[in-house]
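Milestone M4 deliverable, item 7.
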Amino acid sequence: CLPSCRRAAARVSELVGSMLLRGVAQSGRRGLVARPVRVSARGLAAAAAAGQRILYRSTRGGQSDLTFSEAVLQGLGTDKGLLVPQAIPRFDAATLESWRGLPFHALAAEVMSLYLTDDDLSRSELEALTAASYGAQWRDEAVTPVTTLPGGMRLLELHHGPTFAFKDVALQFLGNLFELLLAKREAAGLSHTLTVAGATSGDTGSSAIHGLRGKRGVEVFMMYPEGRTSPTQELQMISVLDANIHNIALAGTFDDCQNIVKALFNDHAFRDSVGLAAVNSINWARILAQTVYYVHAYHEATSPGAALEG
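Output delivered:
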């Protein structure tokens, strides 16, 4: 276990003990609402031509001008806001139509490329990531196939990943992305370890563990409420014996687990010292990866040329 891993384990233990002594803290904080700035397609093209980067900011205004890599590795804004693009890329109908028929991993590379630059990941790196993330580990080669039900209704299937959870679509990618970004930081002489702290009621934990197991430079601490997940979900977590995976069954509820995760992220000195990272849906890379299957579903549910017809 890395020194940062030992510090994280000690801090989690401290917070668990503190919570048990105090009881469950009730939080009255307001929910976060992302209000990203939108730009026109012409404005985005002009920015690209001028060499400007796709940058990220906190929804609470405390951080801005972060790169894709910085936003992904940080996970949550230092002001507790969500990290989102400062401008939302748009693509025209012809571009959408040109993606029709691509395999899922190739479609993922096209969609994701809109939200990062070559300074974050080269095109070849991105394509290698998506190919590794959406390959043989999926039980259907379409990854998220669309089937037709009686009466003509279409059904998007999101259960073909390693843990049968829709979150596999994002977390298979996120594990590979973390590992690559850390390797690039190591090559640049920068800090190259992450400590992932997560809370789960079942599906996030097992999906994150299967996405992050064995990833170099990543230590995972996953908390779940003891006796409050399904037996299958618990077995999916505790049967993974990779050295970087640490499961914590907490006597309490999911909210208790989540309160500890929030406390860890709110301790800025600790957060920086161990390279704390998030795999829950606060991480932008999870949202980005999950947008791909909406584009895929549109192609599967419409006829060729539909986008051009409006």
